[in-house]
Design a protein that fits this description.
The chain is of the alpha/beta class. It has ten helices and eleven strands. The mean pLDDT is 92. It has a seven-stranded parallel β-sheet with strand order 1-4-5-6-9-10-11. A two-stranded antiparallel sheet has the order 2-3. α5 links the parallel β4 and β5.
Amino acid sequence: MNNITERKVLLIGSLPFDNEEDAMARSLDILGEHLFSLPDGEIGEKTDEFPSGKRSCFVMTAILECAADSQNWTIVQEMDPHEDNGFMKDFKGRYVLKPNHPPSEMHKHMNFGYHEYFKQNYPIFKRLRDERGLGHVRFQVCIPSAWNLVPLMMTPVKALRYMSSFTRRLAEEANEIINIGGNDVIIQLDIPTELALAYYLPYFATGFAVNRVLQLVKRLDSNASIGLHMCMGDLHNEMVSHHPKTLKKMANFSNRLVEAWPDTHKLEYIHFPLAEAADPPKLDPEFYSALSEITLPQETRFVAGFIHEKLTEDQLKALLRTIEDTRGETVDIASSCGLGRRTTDVGQYLLDMTFRIAVS
């Protein structure tokens, strides 16, 4: 059991609003005192190709930028035309790329831009926070592990060879952010592929998924504050992999991660997804029984990702009671993933609903 007594709210990352300032201002105005951290909304430039913003479908924009960089990448397979919202249609008709440099050098020729977006939006965050007197809210930067980028860009053999290059580059950008923001920043690691591995692998092989997460964690500066977003993974707000019948494997994965977590790095929270993209959370209390098996350090927040537009306010309140009764403690609340693939109206509705559930 943790030592958290006051329920807080976590926003996972992307938000379906006009721009980052709009996303942060709305979130602070509605949820301010209930937030412990805040992402910038991950929107980016809006274009005809990416009407929701380039950052809202980050993996796609990263692939396109690499494909356009003929000096450092070779296109092995062209991509099928992508959807009107900027996302790829599916994972079959994707680009397949080949790096033009060896694994030991490739990190020097990549730029995912996380540190650049941070430098652009962190000052805006601080101004908005200070204007509202919410000094307790920290800035949250969401970064995927390499395992959630590389397999979508390369053949399996190439992906395994170059995984460490991507991990190194992601860590470099994260460490630049940490160097600037220090304790005012939480680095959230998004780990859908690792969670999928934990579900697909037998229990005795869970360590393989755990080690994939720790490859990035151990490259981060030791003064980093880290959160984990266990993501189910979706495309067009539809599940693309597992539909768990039980939460036991997620509980086991979490416990194995905590057991292996390095003492040098602070684990601020773990977010547990309890809905599946467009599919709402289950209402059967028995489904959540495995949550009682999850053990966290006292200073680590348990974030239940169950807020969903397809459940009523009364259903969400009842589900919160079920989760807290199962855990025997107060838990923080969130949606199951970022809201960037919802409409603006649904995003606004969910911010308002999250507030009502937080104070219930």
